Each structure stands twice: as structure tokens, then as C-alpha cells.
């Protein structure tokens, strides 16, 4: 019989994070760009006090433990307070994506059985449109002060600041099982209804502790962190938790995510670390290039959600000395699962080789395991060539979907739907989403590789590739391009550029120029929109 360790057994709870932050880094700042008015700033300690006031306000509603509280909000200080007050009180925070179809938004609010709902005033019209279809909501709380309250013709509406104004700053956090639900997010629902992923306190705390490590986001009291990734997307990649653990200044951009807005905030607040999707970084690069601006403090950015163009990595490194790290994760993995970070050996490589290494998805973090399997389910060799479906398991990986009895797991592993390779050192390379691979004449083409090659053209601001039905070849790639401002580019130019860089049969048959690509709430290109509109273009 194994000897049991003689250690205390304290549950990993989100309430412990805010208590730690207030006690150990109470003077550290949170800076929040508001929907209305100037930038708001306060300390971790002041934030903790307001969190307890909100917890008392929530208690007054008499909700049962485990009740769900919804949000529809940008990255701002009130959203952070809701994160902690809801979960810390034994309730479940449900962050909703404001860019979902109206029907999907109504579906997830009702499916999650939200009882109270917080919303940013900029989404007032959206709330007015869904309120009548969400009968379980007993209180709609506008994240505003009284002066900026919108006029809505719905019942049971409250003002956030008025609600917490008279509450006590004393609150006793309940203690419960660390496996209790803390948050719920829904998948994007590109096929069928969105699926709910329920995160435990344990999963979030473990993931948040992990992202503080040097090879990941490297969060410390010396850093100022700006999460561009929305807090309604996979727990904001756990950054609102990680900053409180690591003691990093937290800079919240609110609704303004354009290049000018992000650059201004980064420079004013001396941001050292930022995280978001590639479309955000491409916009930021275009802005600083157009205005010939430097970065005075930014040291590293973490990118995820879709493949990082190699040219983007090179530009940030060579022009500004900023390191780009690429991570991989999904709604079902709580946040980060793998991360690329230069080793000591790689720092001595020539730039091109170093940038190529940074363009992969890196290695699994401790606590996560990955493998790729063939169509028969057998594990494939880790040789960087054998391509199959990526499988994942670990301490913060989904085991089931909310209110769904059918297990998504296969032999204890979660099938991601990504097609990938793994090399002998454990480095992951996502080749494509299974649904985005293009089959031409029996051979596969990667939309990711085509997009990255196209973005390498100096006149291309953004690019997307989809597979379109073809009468002869089954499918052919269709390329969409957004030109850089002030640049001329025609179809024959970009096709000739691609022909010099890949097999002839990979080169798309047609190019469509757009003013912008359709983006979802997290900044990813909505390829479903492109498919719906251009599916029959070769007929």
C-alpha cells in the first residue's frame, strides 16, 4: 500500500486567486478602456473590494449554488469583476459571443439556463432583441454607471454601479470541491448548435498557473499585459486569471481593437506582452508601417486561433525585436495546450530558420499530451511527416459536453478535428482543419499553407483560401485577397507569385479581391460565409 503524503488538502478555487492578488500585489494596476468615457484605472486591491461588493449583490438575488450568470461584454474592468465574483461565489459565469447569429445567442442563453445576465451598454439593442426569448433571466444588469444607462423597454433591468454601490466590501468566500463548475463557454457552432464546455475551478487555476511560466506568456510583476483575445472566447485564454497570479499589470482594450487604438494603449501603458489572433497583429503591423512608428516596450506577442504567417513573425522580429510565440488550443482545452518558444539553441540560429521554428504550434505544456492518429485510429510516427487527426488529453481538457450524454472521447482522448504532424521533439504543426483541407484529384492541399504563401506578397494585407466544388478535380482552391492600402495587385500577379513557391497543381484557379474578409467574434476568418456565397463559382 502506498504511503499517503502528509500535505494539506486545499481546493484550487478561483476565489483564492483574487485573495492572493490583493494581498501580495495589491498596488498593481488594472487599466480599462471604457465603452463610455476616459480610461479607467485602479489597483488589484481596489478591484478585489469591488468584486466582494458584486458578490454581495449577487447573493441578494437568492440564486442557488451552481446557477448560471451570463455576460455579453468587452474586455473591461467590470467584466473582470464578474469573472471573479460569479465563480468565487459558487455560481457559473457564461460568457457569450456577441457576434453569434441571433438564433444561436438565444439558444445558448436558454441552453445554459442563465438566471442573471450582464451586458455592456454597447450591446443594449442586442439585449432588447433577445430578452423576450429568454424567459429564465430574472435580472438584466447593464455594465454602466447611472449616467450612461441606455433606455430599454424590458423588465427587471439594473444598473451595475447602482447595484453594487451600497454593498459591503466584506464577503466570505464559500469553500467547495475544486471540480465544481466555474465557467461555461460554447463552441462556435459552425455545424449544428453550439456545444457547451463546462470548466472546473481546478482546470482554470491549473491553466492560469501554467501560462505564467517563462516558456509560455511569462507573466511576472515586471510585465504589463494587454489581452486582445476577447474575454468571451475561451476564458480570455485565462489571462485575466494569470495576471492576478503572476502579479502583472492588466491592460484591457474595451471595444477598440483597431491598429491605432491598440498601439496607443500599448505605448501609453508600456505594455510588454499581448495576446490575440493573427488578424489583429496584421492590422497593427500595417498601422505602424504606414505611420513609421516604433514599439517602445512590447517584448512578445502570443498568437493563436489560426496559423501565424511567416512574414509576420519576421517583421516583428527583424524590425522591432519583438518575439512572436504561437500557441494552439480550443474551447475544449480551457486555453493553452501547446506553445512555441525559442530554445537556447534556437536563439543562435539564422533569422530565417528561427522564424520557421516559431511558425509551428510548439510543444505541449506540462499537463497536456498530444498524438496524431490515422484513419484506423492507430498512432502515427513522430517524424514531422506522418499526417493525421490531432488527439489531446490532460488536466484541463473536456471530457463531455454540457447536457450531452454522448462522450466525444475516443479511448480517453479528445479528437480535435485538426490535421497535424508531430516531430521527434514533440513539436506540433497544424496542417489544416479537417474540414478546410482541399482534395484535388485525390491529393490534399492545405489551405493554411496557401494562405501563408499569399500573405508573403508585399501587396497582400490578408488572404483566405477555401475548397470549392469542381466538375473535373472534385475540389479546387479559391483564393480571397485583401490588398494593402496604396498597393496595386491583380490576379495574375499573385498567381505568378504563388507558382514560384509551390507545386503547380496547388496554385488556385481563381482569385477574388475583397475590401475585407468576414471575421467572427474572435478575429478568425469565417470561411463558412465565403463557402455559402462562392460554393458554385466553378459550376
Task: Write up what this structure looks like.
This protein folds into three domains: 22-209, 3-Layer(aba) Sandwich (Rossmann fold), CATH 3.40.50.12780; 256-434, Rossmann fold (3-Layer(aba) Sandwich), CATH 3.40.50.12780; 437-534, GMP Synthetase, Chain A, domain 3 (2-Layer Sandwich). The protein has 15 helices and 25 strands. Helix 1 (14-24) runs antiparallel to helix 2 (44-60) and helix 1 crosses helix 3 (77-88). The N and C termini lie far apart (70 Å). The radius of gyration is 23 Å and the shape is globular. 48% of the residues are buried. The longest helix is centred in the N-terminal third of the chain and has 17 residues, at 44-60. Strand 19 and strand 20 (428-433) form a beta hairpin. The strands form five sheets. Strands 2-1-11-10-12-13-14-15-16 form a nine-stranded mixed sheet, sandwiched between helices. It has a seven-stranded mixed sheet with strand order 7-6-5-3-4-8-9, sandwiched between helices. The protein has a four-stranded antiparallel sheet with strand order 17-18-19-20. By secondary structure, the chain is α/β, with parallel strands linked by helices.
Amino acid at each position: 500500500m502506498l504511503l499517503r503524503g502528509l500535505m494539506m488538502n486545499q481546493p484550487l478555487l478561483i476565489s483564492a486567486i483574487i485573495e492572493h492578488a490583493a494581498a501580495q500585489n495589491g498596488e498593481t494596476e488594472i487599466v480599462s478602456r471604457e465603452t463610455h468615457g476616459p480610461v479607467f484605472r485602479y489597483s488589484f486591491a481596489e478591484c478585489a473590494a469591488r468584486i466582494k461588493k458584486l458578490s454581495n449583490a449577487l447573493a441578494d438575488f437568492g440564486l442557488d449554488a451552481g446557477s448560471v450568470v451570463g455576460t455579453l461584454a468587452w474586455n473591461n474592468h467590470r467584466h473582470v469583476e464578474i469573472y471573479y465574483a460569479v465563480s468565487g461565489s459558487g455560481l457559473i459565469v457564461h460568457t457569450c459571443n456577441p457576434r453569434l447569429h441571433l438564433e444561436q445567442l438565444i439558444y445558448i442563453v436558454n441552453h445554459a439556463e442563465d438566471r442573471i445576465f450582464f451586458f455592456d451598454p454597447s450591446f443594449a439593442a442586442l439585449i432588447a432583441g433577445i430578452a423576450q426569448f429568454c424567459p429564465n433571466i430574472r435580472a438584466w444588469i447593464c455594465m454602466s454607471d447611472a449616467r450612461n444607462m441606455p433606455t430599454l423597454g424590458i423588465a427587471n433591468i439594473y444598473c451595475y454601479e447602482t447595484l453594487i454601490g451600497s454593498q459591503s466590501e466584506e464577503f466570505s468566500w464559500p469553500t467547495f470541491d475544486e471540480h465544481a463548475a466555474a465557467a461555461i463557454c460554447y463552441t462556435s457552432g459552425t455545424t449544428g448548435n453550439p456545444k457547451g464546455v463546462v470548466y472546473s475551478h481546478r482546470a482554470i487555476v491549473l491553466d492560469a498557473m501554467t501560462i505564467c511560466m517563462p516558456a509560455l506568456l511569462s507573466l511576472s510583476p515586471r510585465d504589463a499585459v494587454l489581452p486582445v483575445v476577447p474575454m468571451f472566447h475561451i476564458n480570455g485564454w485565462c489571462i485575466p486569471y494569470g495576471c492576478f497570479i503572476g502579479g502583472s499589470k492588466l491592460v484591457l482594450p474595451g471595444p477598440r481593437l483597431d491598429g491605432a487604438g491598440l498601439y496607443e494603449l500599448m505605448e501609453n501603458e508600456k505594455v510588454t506582452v499581448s495576446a490575440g489572433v493573427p488578424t489583429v497583429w496584421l492590422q497593427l503591423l500595417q498601422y505602424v508601417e504606414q505611420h513609421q512608428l516604433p514599439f517602445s516596450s512590447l517584448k512578445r506577442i502570443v498568437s493563436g486561433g489560426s496559423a501565424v504567417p511567416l512574414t509576420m513573425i519576421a517583421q516583428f522580429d527583424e524590425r522591432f525585436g519583438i518575439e512572436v510565440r504561437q500557441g494552439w488550443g480550443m474551447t475544449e482545452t480551457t486555453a493553452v495546450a501547446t506553445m512555441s518558444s525559442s530554445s537556447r539553441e534556437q536563439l543562435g540560429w539564422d533569422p530565417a530558420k528561427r522564424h520557421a521554428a516559431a511558425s509551428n504550434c510548439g510543444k505541449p505544456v506540462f499537463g497536456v499530451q498530444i498524438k496524431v492518429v490515422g484513419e484506423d485510429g492507430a498512432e502515427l510516427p513522430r517524424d514531422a511527416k506522418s499526417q493525421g487527426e490531432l488527439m489531446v488529453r490532460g488536466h484541463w481538457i473536456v471530457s463531455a459536453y454540457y447536457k450531452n450524454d454522448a462522450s466525444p472521447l475516443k479511448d480517453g482522448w479528445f479528437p480535435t478535428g485538426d490535421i497535424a504532424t508531430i516531430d521527434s521533439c514533440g513539436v506540433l504543426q497544424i496542417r489544416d482543419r479537417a474540414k478546410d483541407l482541399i482534395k484535388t484529384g485525390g491529393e490534399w492541399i492545405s489551405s493554411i499553407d496557401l494562405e501563408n504563401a499569399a500573405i508573403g506578397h508585399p501587396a497582400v494585407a490578408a488572404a483566405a483560401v477555401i475548397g470549392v466544388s469542381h466538375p473535373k478535380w472534385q475540389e479546387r482552391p479559391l483564393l480571397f485577397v485583401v490588398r494593402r492600402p496604396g498597393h496595386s495587385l491583380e490576379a495574375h500577379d499573385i498567381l505568378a507569385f504563388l507558382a514560384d513557391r509551390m507545386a503547380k497543381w496547388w496554385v488556385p484557379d481563381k482569385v477574388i479581391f475583397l475590401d475585407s474578409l468576414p471575421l467572427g467574434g474572435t478575429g478568425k476568418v469565417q470561411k463558412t460565409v465565403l463557402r455559402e456565397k462562392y460554393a458554385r463559382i466553378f459550376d
